[in-house]
Amino acid sequence: MPRKPPTHCSQCKVELTEANSYRRRESSSFRSRCRSCWAQDRRRRHDADETRRRAELNADSEICEICGAIETVTRSGRVRRPSIDHCHRTGVVRGVLCSRCNAGLGMFDDDPARLRVAAAYLERHAATPSSSPADLSMS
Ligand SMILES: [Zn+2]
Ligand SMILES: [Zn+2]
Q1: pLDDT lower than 70: segments of the chain
Q2: Which of 18, 37, 92, 94 could form a disulfide with 11 if both were Cys (CB 3.0 to 4.6 A apart)?
Q3: Closest ligand to Cα 31
Q4: Cα(133) to centroid of ligand 2, in Å?
Q5: What is the distance between the alpha carbons of residues 101 and 70, in angstroms, rounded to a whole number?
Q6: Average pLDDT, the chain
Q7: Whether residues 33 and 66 fall in one domain
Q8: Which ligand is nearest to the CA of 98?
Q9: In this structure, is residue 47 part of a structural domain?
């Protein structure tokens, strides 16, 4: 006996429509909650995860483990808390990283081998005397 398909959001009771809800598949029934309740829930879960990770790490550290700087990226006028970095495959907490370093690792697919090669690449080129003195003073 199939359950009656939901017509109202089970959380905020708004009537589910094409505009405010999701269907599992084309032409199937709506999901039991509206989009904003789904989104809220996801945000809440994310925040809870973040709090758990912070506790696991025992971190009040606001200092990035890679660059040693405090977070400077701001969102809506306030400096963001540094991310609690975690392994995306295992969910294991790794450490405190600023947004820039965190994004940087992401760009390298969190691959230590590639990061080492990248570091070596930079060192190799840094060791080459630059023909332009302006370049040297930049760094
Ligand atoms: Zn809702
Ligand atoms: Zn950093």
Answers
A1: 1-3, 26-27, 56-61, 71-84, 127-139
A2: 37
A3: 1
A4: 28
A5: 11
A6: 78
A7: no
A8: 2
A9: yes
38 Cα–ligand 1 center, Å:
7
Residue 33 covered by a domain: yes
CA of 69 to the centre of ligand 2 (A): 6
Same domain, 42 and 87: no
What ligand is nearest to the CA atom of residue 105? 2
How many other CB atoms are there within 10 angstroms of residue 67's CB atom?
A: 12
Helices (H) and strands (E) in the chain, counts: 4, 4
| Interacting residues of 31 by C-beta distance below 8 A, sequence separation 6+ | 6, 21, 22, 23, 24, 38
CB under 8 Å to 9, separation ≥6 — which residues?
Answer: 15, 16, 21, 32, 33, 34, 37
136 assigned to some structural domain: no
- Give the range of the structural domain holding residue 111, as residue numbers without chain letter: 62-127
46 and 66 within one domain? no
Task: Read off the pLDDT of residues 10-46 as tens digits, 9 standing for 90 and up.
Answer: 999 999 988 898 887 766 788 889 999 999 988 888 8
The amino acid sitting at 29 is S
Using CA atoms, how far apart are residues 134 and 139, in angstroms rounded to an integer?
Answer: 9
Based on the domain organization, do 50 and 74 belong to the same domain? no
Are residues 8 and 28 located together in one domain of the fold? yes
